Amino acid sequence: MSRSDGMKIPCKMEVDLVHRKHLCISSTGRSSLHSETRTERRFAKSDNRILSNFIQPQLDFLPYKRPQKPRREKLGVLRYVMFALSLALVTGLFLMKVAYLEQIMFWLFLIGNILYYAGGIALAFIFKDNRAFCKYLCPITVFLKPMSYFSLLRVHCDESKCVQCGKCLKACPMNVEVNKESRKRKNATECILCYACTKVCPKKALH
């Protein structure tokens, strides 16, 4: 439509300086806007990565990211013992209204962290597994289990695509039976959403 048609064509256009880079022309002649679903997917993965490594991030520098030995399921009961002892200690201090409670809690926190890393490193080398402490002694996992079971964020398996090659099972640092879709799969509540299994799946059955 030209000016001769008697129509006024506005020539002024405001461009957001912050988002103007999204208005560039792509090779197909269309504006290369970011896909909303891709953005959400990348955010979810990065966010999950942070959450999943919140408890044991510094121990990942050890050489056993993939467990070298079978998991000893019976030792998992020690986590409940640690949880009960920790809860009893803290509850007892509060109920007895001991003096200098803040200082005592500070030193307990400091000593607990030292023992945590010392025990985590020792167990990693004993069991040849970076996540040995999480599997056998960490008391935090006790109350994380119910939340993990009902969580909407989980690794899904399309069993119709799965060829049972077992690569995902070897890659999983927490020995989760990721080649099953059911929430009742073995060690399902211990998934840390690291997505190591999805990266090695040859059929893209995991997502």
The parts where pLDDT drops under 50 for at least 5 residues are 11-55
Derived from helix and strand composition plus strand pairing, the structural class reads: mainly alpha
Count the DSSP helices: 7
Radius of gyration over C-alpha positions, nearest whole angstrom = 26 Å
Number of strands: 0
Could you explain how this protein is built, in words?
The two termini are 49 Å apart. This protein has helices at residues 36-52, 77-95, 101-127, 132-136, 140-149, 167-171, 196-200. The protein has 7 helices and no strands. Residues 11-55 have low confidence and may be disordered.
Architecture blueprint of SSEs:
Layout: H1 36-52, H2 77-95, H3 101-127, H4 132-136, H5 140-149, H6 167-171, H7 196-200
Which key terms come to mind for this protein?
207 residues; mainly alpha; 43% helix; 0% strand; elongated
Give a short synopsis of this structure.
The protein has helices at residues 36-52, 77-95, 101-127, 132-136, 140-149, 167-171, 196-200. It is mainly alpha-helical and 207 residues long.
